[in-house]
Amino acid sequence: MTTIIYIASFLALLGVLVTIHEFGHFIVARMCKVHVQRFSIGMGPVFYRKYDKHGTEFALSAVPLGGYVSMTTNKLIELEPESVKDLTEEQLKNTFDSKPKWQRASIMFAGPLANFLLSIFIFTAIFINTIDPQTVPVISNVNDSSVSAFNANDQLLSINGTVVKEAKDVNLELLSYAGYSGNINFLVKRESNIDPINISVEVNDFLPTSESQNNPTKSLGIDITYKMQPIIGKVLSGGSASEANLKANDRVLKIGTTNINYADDIRTVVSQNPNTTIMFKIERNQDIITLPVNIGSKENLGTLGVSFGTSRTFIQSLSKGVYETYNLSVKTIQFIGKMLTGNMGTENLSGPIGIAQMAGNTAQAGFLPFMYLMALLSISLGVLNLLPIPVLDGGQLTLLGIEAVRGKPLPEKAENIIYTGGAVLVGMLMIFAIFNDISRFL
Questions:
Q1: Which residues of the chain carry a pLDDT beneath 70?
Q2: Torsion, Cα of 355, 357, 363, 365 (10° steps)
């Protein structure tokens, strides 16, 4: 049964990503009136096909790795006249290479763009259907004298100007400095200081090994925990908070004489004061107000009747979805660059076996983790296809750029050599990724 889950989840994951990518090419080609000969999901021999009213063949092919959109070109008409004998005069006139450069570029770019849009859609759906935990990274321990400027309980606000809130944010930002020598600037909030503090840490060949890259904060010399901010997410009906008129999105600043920094502080104070009336100092819509709260009791522990973490609006979810897609795209480009320079281990590359394993694991973890993986891989697919490697969309866009500069295409022989080299490079990359997958099981 487990094997079936892994296979089914892999096929579903790859099927959606490839279909969306190729549909991007297809729909823009249609908009530019370029005839599409075949829209194939999978490579190799076709085992199922269906034609639409325009004569486009929609196919499922035997090898479930990738797909393609085959468009009518002048070269196809010249070399394989039989394959286009049923096309109308209008279709024969509107070949891909007869279109203006901006239209051809749009068709090529539409595939990666579709992947980015899919990622935004998935992230938005996830964010609007989940609670924002409102966490912040807090230093729990300082393990190295080189970072002794940090204190335990410092709240990490940003790294070199980039705001960090989640574990993913901290690790991704630190990983982007793999191989770096120089200063990394941290902005922290310290309980004893009103204003944030700048801490500069000097590093030399930061995160040089795969082992150090697996845990960037530990390699830096600090341990980090993630604590929820003291922002009320939901007020339970009939509870102490409801009777005291506490509301969702209230930030608790003080309970009695105790300053509140995190949600855990609220739980601690409340649990220790059952059946007691305590003054709550809160921030509501930028106003500071004080309310008396009659703490309830259950099993001799104080109760408040609230939950933490807030719901996101559609606009907030969409905005976060766009940002996550942009940020992860930039980080993907940075990590590819670091792999090429040797500053990041290439064992991080995964092939179909690794993707199948991730798909199966996340599918068993639940629908949302599976969709999150789909969004991540959709970003990777979009970014990788924009690399200037012939046979990929980015390579064809590069050749279009060269054509625009030269005023004419490269000689056919040169293009053939370039495409052959690109195909060999992509093939070698795939073999290397599969080798990585296999080595993980040995």
A1: 1, 344-361, 363, 429-442
A2: -120
Residue 339 has which token pair? 């792999």
- 95-117: buried (b, 16+ CB within 10 Å) or exposed (e) per residue? bbeebeeebbbbbbbbbbbbbbb
Q: What is the pLDDT of residue 117?
A: 97
Amino acid 111: pLDDT: 94
Contact 106, 32 (CB under 8 A): yes
For residue 85, what pLDDT is reported? Answer: 77
Length in residues, the chain: 442
How far apart CA 294 and CA 279 sit, in angstroms, is 9
Rounded-to-integer distance, Cα 62 and Cα 29, Å: 25
Res 310: pLDDT: 85
- Kindly list the catalytic residues: 22
Q: In three state form, how does the secondary structure of 113-158 look?
A: HHHHHHHHHHHHHHHHCCCECCEEEEEEEECCHHHCCCCCCCEEEE
pTM of the entire structure?
A: 0.85
**What pLDDT, on the 0 to 100 scale, is given for residue 352?**
60
**3-class DSSP state of 185:** strand
Tokens of residue 275, six digits: 């059946």
Burial of 34 (0-12, 13-18, 19+ CB in 10 A): buried
Helix (H, G, I), strand (E, B) or coil at 277: strand
- Taking the C-alpha atoms of residue 143 and residue 334, their distance in angstroms, rounded to an integer, is 28
* Residues sharing a CB contact under 8 Å with residue 163, sequence separation 6 or more, in sequence order: 157, 169
Q: Please report the pLDDT score of residue 353 as a whole number.
A: 59
